[in-house]
């Protein structure tokens, strides 16, 4: 059964019921079907099941992103030199080669757009990026935030450019669509002024966190945060949104039981 308690047969029946009715209407009315379809009788059972699934999905998402009882997630961390300077230089060089040919995108994220390019579009570096995230970055993130390493999944990985003089210099305060996030600086701190990840509501209050080349800033995406403006030069980073897979227990979506501190004891 899924998290709503329905069996695969019930799910299939609910999703196919309306299609059966519409197919029957098309066969009966032919060319007049578009107008006549308005009068196709509702399958109340199927609609009720679909509403139940939608409500359960919304509740599951809300629970997945709730950090109110998980204080361990309220403090950002900087993990030093997970990537070497030479590795970052190589990655950035490949990113620039691709963006020189096809340009940067500014429309991939509807609410909080960045000047970016998806990591998978830089084919020469993506295998390394994916392997490194799974083998080095995620285990460290899991250790710091008491998560199960195997529960972490890449939701989106992309390279971002913040420029003081040409395009986007920063990003306003926002929350991500994922539970966890991280970013790594690809160029040298001496290449720009300003920058850094600004947190409005961390456990230590408002703060700006900056790392050196190859340092990963790790945090929950549900803390209100943004990219502080670059006031001179250009800042290149890679950003990763990380989903935490949830296990299902008794038809209810769970992220694991919590102890008195609110830290997750088990996950996925």
Notes on the protein architecture:
The chain is α+β, with helices and mostly antiparallel strands. 32% of the residues lie in helices and 26% in strands. The chain has 5 helices and 13 strands. The strands form 3 sheets. Strands 1, 2, 3, 5, 6, 9 and 11 form a 7-stranded antiparallel β-sheet that branches. Strands 4-10-7-8 form a 4-stranded antiparallel β-sheet, with no helix packed on it. The longest helix is centred in the N-terminal third of the chain and has 22 residues, at 8-29. The radius of gyration is 23 Å and the shape is globular.
Please count the beta strands (DSSP E, at least 2 residues each). 13
- How helix-rich are the residues, as a percent range? 25-40%
Structural class: alpha+beta
Distance between the termini: 16 Å
Helix-strand topology string: HHHEHEHEEEEEEEEEEE
Query: Main sheet?
Result: 7 strands, antiparallel
Look at the structure and give the mean pLDDT: 83
Low-confidence stretches: 248-268
Q: Name the shape in a single word.
A: globular
Strand percentage: 25-35%
Radius of gyration (Å): 23 Å
- The number of helical elements comes to 5
Summarize the structure.
By secondary structure, the protein is an alpha+beta fold.
């Amino acid at each position: 059964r899924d998290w709503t308690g329905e069996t695969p047969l019930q799910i299939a029946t609910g999703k196919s019921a309306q299609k059966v009715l519409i197919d029957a209407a098309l066969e009966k009315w032919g060319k007049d079907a578009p107008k006549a379809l308005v009068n196709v009788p509702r399958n109340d059972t199927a609609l009720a099941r679909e509403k139940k699934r939608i409500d359960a999905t919304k509740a599951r998402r809300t629970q997945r992103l709730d950090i109110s009882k998980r204080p361990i997630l309220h403090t950002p961390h900087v993990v030093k030199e997970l990537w070497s300077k030479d590795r970052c230089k190589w990655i950035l060089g490949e990113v620039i080669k691709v963006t020189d040919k096809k340009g940067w995108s500014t429309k991939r994220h509807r609410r909080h757009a960045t000047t970016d390019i998806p990591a998978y579009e830089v084919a020469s570096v993506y295998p390394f990026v994916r392997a490194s995230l799974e083998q080095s970055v995620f285990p460290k993130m899991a250790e710091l935030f008491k998560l199960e390493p195997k529960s972490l999944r890449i939701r989106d990985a992309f390279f971002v450019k913040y420029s003081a003089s040409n395009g986007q210099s920063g990003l306003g305060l926002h929350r991500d669509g994922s539970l966890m996030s991280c970013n790594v600086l690809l160029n040298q701190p001496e290449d720009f002024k300003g920058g850094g990840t600004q947190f409005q509501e961390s456990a230590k209050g408002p703060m700006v966190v900056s790392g050196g080349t190859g340092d990963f800033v790790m945090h929950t995406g549900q803390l209100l945060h943004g990219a502080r403006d670059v006031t001179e030069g250009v800042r290149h980073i890679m950003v990763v949104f990380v989903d935490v897979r949830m296990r299902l227990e008794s038809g209810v979506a769970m992220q694991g039981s919590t102890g008195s501190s609110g830290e997750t004891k088990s996950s996925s």
